[in-house]
UniProtKB/TrEMBL annotation:
GO BP: enzyme-directed rRNA pseudouridine synthesis
Protein name, entry field: rRNA pseudouridine synthase
Species, as recorded: Flavobacterium supellecticarium
InterPro entries referenced in this protein's UniProt entry, alphabetically: PsdUridine_s_RsuA/RluB/E/F_cat (IPR042092), PsdUridine_synth_cat_dom_sf (IPR020103), PsdUridine_synth_RsuA/RluA (IPR006145), RsuA_PseudoU_synthase (IPR050343), S4_RNA-bd (IPR002942), S4_RNA-bd_sf (IPR036986), TruA/RsuA/RluB/E/F_N (IPR020094)
SUPFAM superfamilies assigned: Alpha-L RNA-binding motif, Pseudouridine synthase
Residue ranges, compositional bias (Low complexity): 1-16
Region of interest called Disordered, as start-end residue ranges on this chain: 1-59
A GO molecular function held by the record: rRNA pseudouridine synthase activity
Keywords assigned by UniProt, alphabetized: Isomerase, RNA-binding
Every RNA-binding S4 domain range: 63-125
Family of this protein: Belongs to the pseudouridine synthase RsuA family.
Bias (Basic and acidic residues) ranges: 32-52
Amino acid sequence: MNNGKGNNKRGSSNGKPGFGPKKSSAAGKPNFKKDDRKSNFSKPKPDFEKKPKAPKAAASDDIRLNKYISNSGICSRRDADIYIQSGNVKVNGEAITEMGYKVKPGDVVNFDGTVITPEKKEYILLNKPKGFTTAGDGDGNTANVLDLVRNATKAKLQSVGRMDKSTTGLLLFTNDSDMVRKFTAPNQRSSKVYQVTLDRNLKFEDLEKIQKGLTIDNFRVYVEEISYIENEPKSEIGLKMKTSNVKVVRSIFEHLEYDVIKVDRVVFAGLTKKNLPRGNWRFLTDQEIINLKNI
């Protein structure tokens, strides 16, 4: 900033280009053209750099309408598109049918007659004890797993997958409908590890059958790994597979005429029971959330 003012007669081209040469234009056109080119090139450049910054900052606060609806816990983005196309969604009192419409901060969104707001996404991991079920109706005498995490947040949570009252272990809760759909889809890719207790020792030939894959009710069922639990009776089995449906785990052994005494999910999509006693819950860390979304 100190260079180019007073120390160099040609410094006007670095300070206020164009002003010096205009006064001495008769001294020769080359100087005028040189400085004029610098003036025309250098002055618009800061304006060009500044202009995109403002809209970028504003655009980051905008959110696609279908995502806004999904974040509110109403339905998935795909289902939200259907509601939008049918004219059931209004923004600031005006029906919106445009796919990709973006909601701005302060906009009022009305979904099928009700004003909605997106909730902060919550992710809670529970080490489920016996005696609680994910079933909505239950049997009247069985408590619901939501009772265990009810005081964790005001957000409307749902469990990722189902568990009966006798199954224990890791169960994820969230108000992120996209996350729920992702981990309950038939083609989801995350691995789960189950420890299964049987009424009797698992025969080695049956273990091999399970490893090769079984056909149950006309469906082919595959596992990633199966083994006996080290230093435990051969009725204690470790099973790794992608399904979050505990019924599938039970059906594998019941198909071979074993009674399943207990199923405990010890790993869910990379999450473990470390430092999480039975019946306790915790919020996922930011990194754990990122990991789940990248699976």
